[in-house]
Specification:
The protein is α/β, with parallel strands linked by helices and 215 residues long. 49% of the residues lie in helices and 20% in strands.
Length: 215
Amino acid sequence: MKLQLALDDISLVDALVLAEKVRDYVDIFEIGSPFIIQEGMRAVREFRRYFPEKKILADTKIMDAGEYEAELTFKAGADYCTVLGVTDILTIKACLAAANKYGKQVFVDTICVPDLNTRIKELEDVGVDSISVHVGVDEQAVGQTPLNALKQVKQLSKHSQLSVAGGIKVSTVDQYQALGADIIIVGGGVNHADDPVATAKALADKIHSHENVSA
């Protein structure tokens, strides 16, 4: 099990400073959608430069021009990019084609997918093997969590690795571990914590100790 740190509402300088402080605890650095809007692929290139040993995910939430946009992330140094699960299956297949070309991976983001029962099968049938179960910040504001969706996707998926995001904290991470998530994504729970480093360490201790027990 791995810890992914989502960097969203943060400047490039502040993100690099924070990442350096928590690099021993984080497995995957996520360049979040707001971060990409602000900095573009420059953020991916800088993280690749300063953290060569880490996995980097570009949370592009691709909706169209799948091969072209995915290729931009891989050329910049990302190991993973994301495509929205609600988009056309042709766009998802195009993202997978780019990933195969560069030896990288694509996570399909389930945010706002209306029918997971149908969509998960369709995704895996075309070669998807990484799915991100996601409840967005606007949904979180009215009390929604990704717990039920993760349980559903875990039952439906035949082979995909599953990441999960949506307001996860140290106090709730055990619930997502129990449901079989492979990657726990935390953003504001670390970035907005009173002590981000201590919080990242506490999360990593839980997540990585669980990984060791499972291994």
